[in-house]
Specification:
By secondary structure, the protein is mostly helical. The protein has helices at about 10-15, 25-45, 50, 55-60, 65-80. It is built from 5 helices and no strands. The chain binds zinc ion.
């Protein structure tokens, strides 16, 4: 029964933040990634980033792609901070 496109409730989904595949809207990813460097540096500084960057924090919970980006940035930042030269 592949009638996805004809389902009457389908257009309602467009008002939700997430599509049925769990993908966040692209503009959310854009904004999230723009704030990631600040998010990471403030997090490292001990700021309450969940409050300061609530949208970003929420988005990271929803979006595996951006979370990977966050992990990469945080990894680089911590490596630079602690100079983990022998972690290769
Ligand atoms: Zn994203």
């Amino acid at each position: 029964m592949a009638v996805d496109n004809a389902l009457p409730w389908r257009h309602l989904l467009s008002s939700l933040r997430l599509s049925p595949t769990g993908q966040a809207p692209a503009e959310d990813c854009q904004r999230c990634r723009e704030s990631l460097p600040l998010f990471v540096s403030d997090e490292m500084a001990g700021q309450a980033v969940d409050d300061l960057y609530m949208e970003t924090a929420v988005h990271l919970d929803l979006c595996p792609a951006c979370f990977q980006e966050y992990e990469a940035l945080a990894g680089l930042a911590y490596a630079a901070l602690y100079d983990l030269g022998n972690d290769a």
